[in-house]
């Protein structure tokens, strides 16, 4: 009955209370109370949800601040000191932010001064450069080159009736067809004393000594040197060399060539170990790594890594290291165990383990930072400003190099000019990084730059240090060109052989000697039978 009355009330008499009974009023009040209680419960639930969301938002905000501090915050190991003479203090507090802004405002005069000097240097270089006279190819053809003169007379020339009144000469650079193969026959003479009787066994018999070379095979040292330099200096795979020689009537199977190359690598290995030891004696090294594809037993290839180490102080050359293709931190741990000195690298995390190692100073590479912003500079004014500012640092280095500045002068110029620019860039990173969302290209570039900035800025501490790692990268470039041609190594042994050959090709370039001539000279000797002091004399640095 009550339900019927309530329905009647709800549907027909909502505003007419004259027809309500006492029971209807009571039921109505109960219903309203229940509805209010329900709404109160819902409000409390929503309040609880809001509190939870506020807590989650606060947690995320704290995490963002934490990450921000990790990258851009108060870390003594991730800041530049107040002066280039001391590396202490804190970074990016409010006072430092103000100082950074002021430094940023003070930097342009320094940059303008550097650019003006660079402009004068380039103008002087253009005006003092000697003009080419005579032959247009004088820059790449030596004066003492062989010349074959062919005199061409006009058709119908008669010396009895005509007299020569002049010459019209045209020159062409020619090439005689290589290769020129021949077989060297070593006829070792066996002699016997005249007074000795034939029945006397080995009495008075003398035999010419065997002329031993590094590799005991049919190929002479000259051919071995041609194969190795062709592949590792001029990026000609073995099968291409074999195909070329076949056209000249010499059909050497690729498998045979490969066996000769392995033999040459084994013979050069004692010399390679001496080269490694010589470079690791340097107090200033540059390191980098590059990938190489290696075939496995399943008929597929896997990516491995060659590690390169360069003597950046004495120009003693480079060595490459292969450790089963590994790129883990165990490789540099093994390479630089017990080393004391400066190591310059890119931002690869494996090198970060040396940051706090006693006796090792870790340097960064400005070129890697610049590349992060170069492809963004066209569309982002902040990236363009960073690239332009870094360019001023390179202009300063070029000015010093052009002026033949000594280490002490370089150090003084870097402290007075480069260091304020570095500090202004550091402050600029802090100011602009908030404009970008996480994982944006510009945000990633800023994060990378700041993570390695302390390493990069350490080059101002010593006039002998370089601003970047480019010389090491230049030494690696032939490897990148070679792998595009031969594609992969057959196995781990082949990759180890590559490390040996690329080491000496790079060392020859560093020493400015012709790699073929050096390799031909070395492979003609019995390397495996030579003492260490004899081998040291054969290193490229000692063959200038």
Structure notes:
- This protein is of the alpha/beta class and 544 residues long.
- It has a domain of 181 residues.
- 50% of the residues lie in helices and 8% in strands.
- The N terminus is likely disordered.
What's the structural blueprint in terms of helices and strands?
Blueprint: H1 2-11, H2 22-72, H3 94-128, E1 190-192, E2 205-207, H4 221-232, H5 238-246, H6 254-279, E3 284-295, E4 301-311, E5 318-322, H7 330-335, E6 341-344, E7 360-363, H8 366-374, H9 381-402, H10 407-432, H11 441-457, H12 470-486, H13 492-511, H14 515-523, H15 532-536
Parallel strand pairs: 3-6, 6-7
Antiparallel strand pairs: 1-2, 3-4, 4-5
Helix pairs in contact: 1-2, 3-9, 3-10, 4-14, 6-13, 8-9, 8-11, 9-10, 10-11
Characterize the largest beta sheet: strand count, sense, and whether it forms a barrel. 5 strands, mixed
The N- to C-terminal Cα distance equals 118 Å
Shape: elongated
Total helical segments: 15
Side-by-side strand order of the widest sheet: 5-4-3-6-7
* Integer average pLDDT: 82
